[in-house]
Amino acid sequence: MDAVPKILDACCGSKMMWGDRKNPRVIFGDNRAETITVTDRSHGKADGSRTLIIEPDVMLDFRHLPNTANWVKTGRMIFGKKPLTR
Q: What is d(CA 45, CA 65) in angstroms, rounded to the nearest whole number?
């Protein structure tokens, strides 16, 4: 498998849409790096909490990307799904 990054996930968050959060073909970017505890009852814990770890490979703001023309020629840029709301 070609390990050269071909995909830029420009707002990766906690990388929830990826089966492999360390996929070598992806450069994970976000404008924040933090750990957040949220309450949403989605993981069966008694208190309804879970921890999100936002740990991008590069700090970037998708509204001000450098060299976007280069990405268009050499790879793919994706934006994850919008957060779900109740």
A: 38
